[in-house]
Structure formats: structure tokens, C-alpha cells
Design a protein that fits this description.
Number of domains: 1
Helix content: over 70%
Order of helices and strands: HHHHHHHHHHHHHHH
Strand content: under 5%
Radius of gyration: 20 Å
Distance between the termini: 64 Å
Largest sheet: none
Structural class: mainly alpha
Amino acid sequence: MTDPVTLSSGALASARRAERLQPASVLARIRGLLAMTRPSVVFLVFFTGLPALAIEDRHWPSVGRSAALLLGIALIASASSVFNAWIERESDARMARTQDRPLPTGLISPPVAMVWGSVLAVAGLAILQWQGGFPGMIAGAITVAFYVFVYTIWLKPRTSLNIVIGGAAGAAPPIIVDAALHGRVGLMSLSLFAVVFLWTPPHFWAISLFRKADYVNAGFPMLPITHGDEATRLRMVLYALSIIPFAILPTLTHNLSVAYGVFAIVLGLWFAWTCVRLFRGRTDALAKRAFFASLLFLHLLFSAMTLDLALG
């Protein structure tokens, strides 16, 4: 028998697609193209690349070169989001959280989306080649390919390890910056990569706890579905704790100050405590709180890194 929740959400999505069959304004389509890039995600990617510009040798590149490298990273991140939306347009239509996106509603057609993503990717890689040479461009190209082919097409619909392994793509900006500036990948960029890589699973597991029905409808084997809520909450605690050593590594190597290190420990323990509260409380409200806490944690941590480097 058809699940009434699935049926109602599918009917709603169909109705909205029918509404979109009416000609949309140019402005609405432009907004749709921009929405497909997921600006909030792009900003986060941009943000995590910022301290990587100076953390290796505590020397900032010129403003122009810094801006160009971050723009190149933002463009390839935007391209990755568009390609993801193109690949997942049918599953997005089955999820309440995503069924209003431009492709499921018909605001943007699949061919236009593919062209848009390709333009963004070429532009981003060209900028990375211009300012970062071959190493920067290759690092960017590998990131896009990993996100699209390894994470979106292969891992996400097949295994609960999807976000564990796939998180490497979202954690790549520090590595891209380091490769572009120095022609290799150093310890500091690896430590920043590790912070974001380990942060990604608890961030997305929190969403999958309070949006479980969406992932069931879309057919994605997220951890709460395959291993249960209890196992998911426990892993969130362990991952949150595992971030702390990598967050303070730049202090131990004297690339960042002791003040930053103390702040990173306190902030890391606070984030871990929100996950412990979720493990003990077991409610959707606490899962949502852990989700927002994860965002605040990452923004504050990388802001502290950037401020420390700016003041140093």
C-alpha cells in the first residue's frame, strides 16, 4: 500500500510543478539559478578556506590573489551544488525539504542546469589555474569530480558511509588553497581539512535524525535508517570529540596562539556537550539544536583562526 505521507508529498510536488509550467519571469529564473548554487553552503566553503591563506607561514597573500583564489573555490563549490541538484532532481521531488527547489518545480530545466553547472566549473577552475597554477587547478578539479561521481552518484544512494567519506569534498578548500599557494599540501591545511571532515558527519546526521522520513522517501540510506537513532547519536558524540585534537594542532605547532587553542578546546567541548545532550535526550528538538550548534561551532572556530592570524 502507498504511504499516505509519500503520496501527499508527491501530489504536492506535482501540483507545484504544474504551477511552474506557466512562463516564469527572467528574474525568477535568475533567482532559481542562484538558488541551485546553495549560497549558504558556498559561503561556508568560502569561510573554511580563509584561514588557510595564511596559516602555513603566517603570511597573507595579496588581497587580489586571496580574493581570486576564494572566488575560484566558491565557483567550483557552486558548480558541485548545481551538478548535485541535476543528478538528484527526482529524489529531491520526493523530499519535503527539497521539493521546492528549482529543478523539481520545473523553474529551471535539466539542460539549462547542466550548462549552468558547467560554466561555473570551467570559470572556477580557470581562476584557480590563473592564480594557483597546475596544483591549484588539479586540486579543484579532483574536488568537483569526487563530490559529483564518488559522493553524489556512488556513495549517497548506496551506503550509510556516504557522508563520512563524501565529507572530504566539503573539507577540501584548505587543501586547494595550500596547493595553489605552495604547490603542495602541508600539515596545517591537513589539520583544517580534518576539522571539517570530522565535523561533516555529525552535522548531517543531526539533519537525518529530525528529517528521517524525507530520506526514507528519497531512498537514501542515512545512518539513522540503517543503524538506528541510538547508534547515530553515539557516533555524533565520538566525532564531535575527535575534532578537538585537530582544532588545537595549529597551536601545538605554534602556527596559532595559545589563546586560540584555549578557545578551540572550550568551543569543541561545548559542541560535544550538545551531542551528549542529544544522546541522552533523544528528541527531534535536541537534534535540531545540535544541527544549529554545529553551524555555530564551525563559524566561530574558523573566525577565531582568521582573527588570530590577522592579529598576529
